[in-house]
């Protein structure tokens, strides 16, 4: 009597095209590869002197950020502009919700303004699912990060970085280091790596920053940094939020850096040509040493560039899937 | 009204009766079994051929939401729903507005139940003033007003000293206390069972230890104080084992489980459906199996609906911002019959967990069929089917994940005090 997982059918049209982009859970490998291939082609657009393509001309993209963000918001805006869409960005955290308006009503109002796509960031896990299922199913919803649950465009831009710099996922060892418990980036990276066939995913963190129930085939847990990094091809460092010290999860930033900070010495334990990634913003001297962050193995700034291409890919694919779906059969809203 | 219930299979867990029998009701009571009393003139005959006649179900926990939460439910609507689920007696919770911590609120509830209710209503009083976990409510006065037991809900006591004193005071007057054990610090901010599903969904986890640590503390204090204690809505297999050990040591403790907890697991949350948001949370498959075994063995002697109706808005938000609870009293019997269907236990044993077990836990004078006793009965077809929400949905809360499911069994009649409260459509 337990219900089946319907996330996949929520995100895809009956013939498997993307129409919302909420989570990497349930998306097949060929679709992830299609996103990466499309993003690769958009990277070339970004290198041209005229950086626009007309794929979303006449469409309105609405960035609705219930949570602060600079990098993600800006790259989504740029991506939409390069696709020739009209873009508006709302920082809802400071307007409607403080007047007592519910998420449901805020989104319904924006829907009434005839937006074609919402990019949503929200502090609650599942917010994007809720909007796609119950609020605005006819509008393409792109998850720009929901609580600890998912940050699927970050996950895909990380995959693009890995593919461009290291190649075939099946041959790689990837270590994700730091606050995995609170990280939506880690969750999306893990799902993407598994789907793309990576067989050695290592999670490196103290027990206080590791969630329960992670152990699965292809995933290994390391509590000690040196063992976890041995011979890996890719190191993904996670940001450590300052409030973790207050919750009794860690004694201090200093002790954290001594145990889990990525220093040149620790980087030497990885494969000689290993790359270093970080979703940003980085905390120098907390999770990563400046000489590593600025060093030749770091691809942290490349990730930002790839982020625009990935977001262009996802937005154009979801818009075309949603448009097709709307033409074929109008969707009815499900009651919550 | 003189009623003759003809041709049914009468099951009474209290006396062990399970055989075809004729029942004769008069003036709200069961007057005779098998042989009509002299001069008995039948005014109404209920045909129970092919049906089971059992004591009306006794539900130890159902939120009626009155006074104070009229958008969610009312005494009239929720007891009507309960009657449709085969329930004739239910215990309502003190989380009303104002809190059920004064005789005035007890009287209001009992008066309204008398006027508008479709079941008997036994109020559970607040153990502390406003459920704040500090100053005791006037427990003896509340008992005299009609409270059958006392609980502080999921709100913790200020500290263990206050909890200990509450138990000692209650023991002085032989009151029964109901405990909803969850250590709030360990459960802090939690939305789901701490496990693989919560991890995938990025929801804060509530560890098993939030329940078991609190249960261990309570059991030790119960042992020291000698108070009669009932542990309600347990969710962990480990908790059931701890109750079994305490009972083996001779402690005066009983325990119940939510009916839905015996069916659902945390896997149900996989799509962020707020219908499955409950507190304490749905647990793992292993927990569910442990709870089911404990029900079979009788460690968990009662199954309750833990009915919590909500208005639509309460469930219409991202998961974390929705209110916990499932509206389920309306289908208590059909849901419970899935346990018989699954072969977990036989029908008389199941009925014991729904009638005698809960009645004994709180010493309620209901839940049996005997001459001279109240004619509180449910008459149902165990072979029938209920398509949930198809023919009726009396509860104000449609927050029920089983709507549109087909469940075994079909309630034909529910009688409370010899009055028909529900008749199959």
Q: Biggest sheet of chain A, strands in spatial order?
A: 7-6-5-8-9
- Helix coverage percent of residues of chain A? 25-40%
Compute the CA-based radius of gyration of chain B: 21 Å
How many DSSP-defined strands of chain B? 18
Spans of at least 5 consecutive residues with low confidence of chain A: 1-5
Instruction: Tell me, rounded to a whole number, the average pLDDT of chain A.
Output: 90
Oligomer: heterodimer
Shape designation of chain A: globular
Report helical residue fraction of chain B. 25-40%
What about the largest sheet of chain A?
5 strands, parallel
Coarse morphology of chain B: globular
Give the count of helical stretches of chain B. Answer: 12
**Beta strand count of chain A:** 9
**Strand fraction of chain B:** 15-25%
Topology of chain B as a string of helices (H) and strands (E): EEEEEEHEHEHEHEHEHEHEHEHEHHHEEE
What does the model show?
The complex is a heterodimer of chains A (336) and B (425). By secondary structure, chain A is an alpha/beta fold. In chain A, 39% of the residues lie in helices and 14% in strands. The longest helix of chain A has 29 residues, at 300-328. Chain B has helices spanning 75-84, 103-116, 139-145, 160-172, 184-187, 196-201, 208-225, 237-248, 285-297, 332-341, 347-354, 356-361, and strands at residues 3-12, 17-26, 29-33, 44-47, 52-55, 57-62, 87-92, 120-126, 149-151, 176-179, 192-193, 205-206, 228-231, 253-258, 302-304, 377-387, 406-416, 419-423. Chain B is globular, with a radius of gyration of 21 Å. In chain B, helix 7 (208-225) runs parallel beside helix 8 (237-248) and helix 8 (237-248) packs parallel to helix 9. Chain B is an alpha/beta fold. At the A-B interface, helix 5 of A face helix 6 of B.
